[in-house]
Specification:
It contains no helices and seven strands. The protein is mostly beta strands. It has a single domain, classed as Thrombin, subunit H (Beta Barrel).
Amino acid sequence: MERIDVWRGEAETDADGNTVQGPLTLITSFDGLVAPASTPETVSEESSGVTFDHTIYIRSAEPTGILDTDLIGVRGRRVPVDGVVCEWRKHDGTHVGDVVNVKLKEG
């Protein structure tokens, strides 16, 4: 089990009246299983960076409340959620936890 931090910037209004993301704050932390996921990417002249791609399994009796706009702190990096957070359920419908995919490309 690894520590999973959930970071979120609350909506604020700038001087022009536009809604912008405010400073990131730590919302909550969980223990979770982190599985490396790899997606093949073709190296090109514009992009030869490193991709950090994980699937995170968090056991919880209720949904975690993680949003698809959150940043997840995992393995020393803040990585954006990639896609929709999925509910993990047993065959009888009992909630087991949430499944979160995260992905970051650097370089």
